[in-house]
Amino acid sequence: MDRQKFDQLFDMTDRSVIVTGGTRGIGLALAEGFVLAGAKVAVASRKADACEAAAAHLRELGGDAIGVPTHSGNIDDLGSLVERTVSEFGGVDVVVNNAANALAQPLGSMTPDAWAKSYEVNLRGPVFLVQHALPYLKESSHAAVLNMVSVGAFNFAPALSIYASGKAALMSVTRSMAAEFTPFNIRVNAIAPGPVDTDMMRNNPQEAIDHMVGGTLMNRLATPDEMVGAALLLCSDAGSYMTGQVIIVDGGGTPR
């Protein structure tokens, strides 16, 4: 490998990236990483003011960024997100499905409404966003899809079965997408984070947080920034021979 090829491994210059749930937590950290690697980024979340604040922050980092108010459970919003991104940046090279609904109800007292809302955002949204973006991904010479799942897709998840089952389904969809999209040179992978210091995590009782931390070998929460390296690997040319994979980023918690 020569110096030029090496320097291009993680280079995302001029690639157009959509990041859902991109205004805080893991999503914002990923958006920052993509911008610093040279990408043009469209961040999406439900709140317009949060979208614009995140986009302004990314522009302060020297990147080209827009914020697009989007409810990931709304199919029309997902189509508009793709259209706006294409209008602004000329195409779509990478889709990052990070937005998630953290509704938690125990088995035996679930409501159909909670189940539907969770699956609309955590499973249906990612599938249909990729479907909307597919014509543009097919045109890209560096196309990649990154689905954010969870170690809950592998582990016991008492009281979190709606969320965990949706993430397990998204992991299955990741593998199906990878197989179906290979003829179009679109790579599809996933990251399964363990406990990360985000608003979603802080909404849990301290006892639950301590339990999750205690299940890791490193005995601490991750920072959102610690998801960036794996994301860049899977979305850049550094991961050019990786598809249908799930990288577990959990401080050593899952295989025990």
Automatic annotation (TrEMBL):
Residues 15-194 form the Ketoreductase domain. Keywords: Oxidoreductase. PROSITE patterns: ADH_SHORT. One of its GO terms (molecular function) is oxidoreductase activity. Belongs to the short-chain dehydrogenases/reductases (SDR) family. This is Oxidoreductase. It comes from Mycobacterium dioxanotrophicus.
